[in-house]
Write a structure and sequence with these properties.
91 residues; two-stranded parallel sheet; 3 helices
Length: 91
């Protein structure tokens, strides 16, 4: 079973919450891997007024996520990916 998580900058007010809903994420801008699979439609349909900054290249995604405070999505399956873990650990 796959689940979707969101990494939020530790200084963002939402980072203090243990659990988030899509409604909590309303209006935010997200850094997103272009090939996010079925999750793309899920987040686009369920996060009102959000902006999605899609990135094709994982290296580019890693660079942007290291030097920005944009939230980004990950799944329990992508956590096994070195690039994803590097982004999560550098926050």
């Amino acid at each position: 079973m796959e689940y979707l998580g969101v990494e939020i900058d530790k200084f963002h007010p939402l980072a203090q919450k243990k659990q988030l809903t899509f409604t909590d994420l309303t209006g935010l801008s997200f850094l997103v891997v272009q090939d996010i699979g079925p999750w793309r439609q899920v987040v686009e349909d369920n996060i009102p007024d959000a902006s999605f900054l899609y990135q094709e290249d994982l290296n580019t995604m890693g660079q942007i996520s290291r030097y920005s405070s944009f939230p980004f999505f990950f799944s329990n399956l992508t956590q096994a990916n070195k690039a994803t873990m590097k982004r999560l650990c550098q926050r």
